[in-house]
Task: structure prediction
Amino acid sequence: MYCNPPAGVTSVSDLLAARSQMGMSLAFHIIFAVVGIGMPVLMVVAESRWHRTGDAIYLDLAKRWAKGTAILFAVGAVSGTVLSFELGLLWPEFMRFGGAIVGMPFSLEGFAFFTEAIFLGVYLYGWDRIAVGAHIAAGTIVAISGAASAVFVVIANAWMNTPRGFEMLQGKPVNVDPIAAMMTPAAFPEVLHMVLAAYAATGFAVAGIHAFLLLREPGNAFHRRALAVALLVGAPAAIAQPFSGDISARYIARWQPAKLAAAEAQFATEKGAPLRVGGIPYETARETRYALEIPYGLSLLAFHDPNAEVKGLEAFPDSDWPPVAPVHFAFQIMVGLGTFMALVAIWALVTRWRKRQLAENRWLLRAIAIAAPMGFICIEAGWTVTEVGRQPWIVYEIVRTADAVTPMPGLVVPFVVFTILYFFLGAIVVWLLSRHVLGSPRVSDVEPEPLAGSGA
Amino acid sequence: MESLLTLPNVLAALTMVALNAYVLFGGADFGGGVWDLLASGERREQQRELVTHAIGPIWEANHVWLVLVVVLLFTCFPPVFADLSILLHIPLSLMLIGIVLRGSAFTFRSYGSEHDAEQRRWGRVFAIASLLTPVLLGMSIGAIASGGVGEALVLSRTPETAGFWRLWVVPWLTPFSVGIGVLALALFAFLAAVYLTVEADDEGLREDFRVRALWSALAVFVVAFAVLLIALATDTHVGSGLTRSAWAIPFHVATGVAALWTIWALWARRFRAARVAAAAQVTLILWGWVLGQYPYIIPPNETISAAAAPERTLNLTLWALALGAMVLFPSLAYLFRIFKGRPEAFERMR
Ligand code: HDD
Ligand code: HEM
Ligand code: HEM
Result:
């Protein structure tokens, strides 16, 4: 059934270019995808509040957010299409091996995209064409299907980390069971962590922007409401994130110990392993220097037992090591910034709970403004841990990345071309958003302007 | 001879149905871009506006059909997806650049800028990307249909002797595949013009697009004929299928009838009928290709049944498609009813 792949000799630099192109495309897409998951929730909350209270500022908020979302969603859709082709353009042998096993979640994702794109069209262009209730319902469907696409694509990624649903016979997969492949152990922790990440990141980014504008214009009712809605979505997710991260950490300790060892820069296998804060891993010397070590911390976190044995990188052959430094640094960044976000979220909720005005607390506003980009940084860092930490495997312990790459020569060319393209698009998106969406309306002129491009 | 109704055949057919939908809906959105580029006459700006209104709410949904084709291909026919991605790396990458630029430029134009100069610049990018992307899609299909990819696949087992040019460029840069590329462009522009006659709410605009539809019908005819001649002259795989099989004659007749019907309906200003006929014509051309190369999926060697994934995967995918369709079709109907319904229908809905 699986005919022989076309033979070819792929040079090291081609492999590097392919990995760079994949990583770059994913790192780009994930930003827009996350916005596509989070923003519909914010818009629906704002529009429902307008519907309930009659406060026109909420409607203006929903419309302004919708305008920004339309731009971001389009870039998300096209960059996602690029990715689905890149799975083959860059990793044909991975798809030849795994397509039949892991195609299922991708197919289901396809239908989630459909509902998302269809109801986003209805939502963005239908303000004057359908009743308010139907409009809010359309937004809700966008929110649900956005989360569903994330669930399915992350299940596909989870399969790469803990491949299930087949047996190997002479280097070929047999007895393929796509359902078992979807039930892979990595699926639950990854999906939970990713969906929460999307709400935390979008919530905090939006809250941060409005907090920053409130520092300049403290009385602006528009920004006050925006801040409240954004924190309502972002803060609970940010508080949940360290707990969900703990589930992820315990899962990799069990199923991908080399990844955990790289994330913690743990070279030796030891009982009662310490948790390292900072530190520089030296791969050749096999030790991590200049780290602040919290005794028993790692054993405690990874296994909930101070004396548990943690496998170090030494337990694995050198050829199976992921690059240690990037994984370690990325992990530190995620945990550090994630902790900061969770603390700020708790602070905001406590302020709210004590019936204080969020917008009156300038220190809190500053903290929220600083946290604005952190969710997105955490997401990039977290994916670096997951993807680079899985190396040298594309399908963990089954297929090596180097064996999956296309024989196409000269892969630096597409890498450079797509990088330039994405940088260009990214710059334009930032410019358009800052010019048209962030401009803060005065309380007096919040009467909603008609959305550009909306028909009727 | 094995039965036609095997699981691999059913899934291959459904993949083609998805491609068919992409051509009819997404293709017309590209065609709209072509008419944006070629807007002319005193109603130039209204023509552009009509295109923007017609595409705006639906292009992202239409675009997902392409994603579905890709996903079905790699789930149900993994080796085919792998081999096509390897050998068509260059045209597919170029097509992706076109897809990225088309979608984002369109959105930047509608949502981004109020300045005319800037709008025009994005409009240009949108229009040019709409022009090039269909050609590259058509060239890739032409490379498969002609057997060029299949032959390169054999050569690629000994890459040392094959060389870069013969492996990575020749399969898709033949007169036949370039011809198919131009044909795809003509078909998409034709579809868009016909659809726009229905969507125009102004007599003058409707006439503009009627004339455009008639001219592009002629262009389709000329290009299709040229491609057929090339196919016969260079003895491509699909060429022999299209001329020698038992079903070939009735099929050509049906396509011809659909083409004449479209032209008649346009002539008689029966625009709704023209829309149905044009869609039928394009669909028949697409399935002519499919039948022309059956039972091969990458002619001349790889068959549908040999490339298919294990039965369990195919079965589950079929279920997923059935389930998905139950969600998809009502949603699509709702979308099109809101944005493509008759104007009176809007009034009633408000
Ligand atoms: C807002 C974003 C965000 C925040 C605040 C955090 N993470 Fe995270 N993390 C992600 C966003 C993220 C992610 C980008 O979404 C990843 C990549 C893969 C995944 O499932 O989630 C991830 C992966 C990831 C992994 C690797 C899982 C794997 O390889 O499958 C671990 C062990 C953690 N995280 C642990 C944590 C801990 C202990 C945090 C404590 C504060 C934390 N994360 C905060
Ligand atoms: C969206 C967030 C993601 C980011 C930022 C990301 C990042 C990366 C990076 C940096 C690489 C290169 C690894 C290296 O060179 O060491 C990579 C590789 C890859 N990723 Fe991801 N990834 C993400 C999600 C996913 C998902 C959801 C999938 C699965 C379906 C996936 C599939 C792949 C594949 C196939 C490769 C190439 C093989 C490899 O190097 O392991 N990624 N990704
Ligand atoms: C963890 C990583 C990922 C998440 C959370 C994610 C999520 C999403 C979401 C929510 C969308 C909707 C569009 C938007 O909001 O911009 C989207 C679009 C898309 N994604 Fe991803 N995605 C991820 C990675 C991938 C990968 C690895 C692929 C390819 C294999 C992919 C393929 C696509 C495609 C094709 C679209 C376009 C759908 C459309 O046309 O509407 N995504 N993604």
Summary: Residues A 161, 186, 190, 193-194, 197, 200-201, 241-242, 245-246, 248-249, 252, 259, 334-335, 338-339, 341, 375, 378-379, 382-383, 385-386, 389 surround HDD (ligand 1) (CB under 6 Å). Chain A has 14 helices and eight strands. Chain A touches chain B through 78 residues (CB under 8 Å). Strands of chain A lie at 167-169, 172-174, 270-271, 275-282, 287-294, 309-310, 393-395, 399-400.
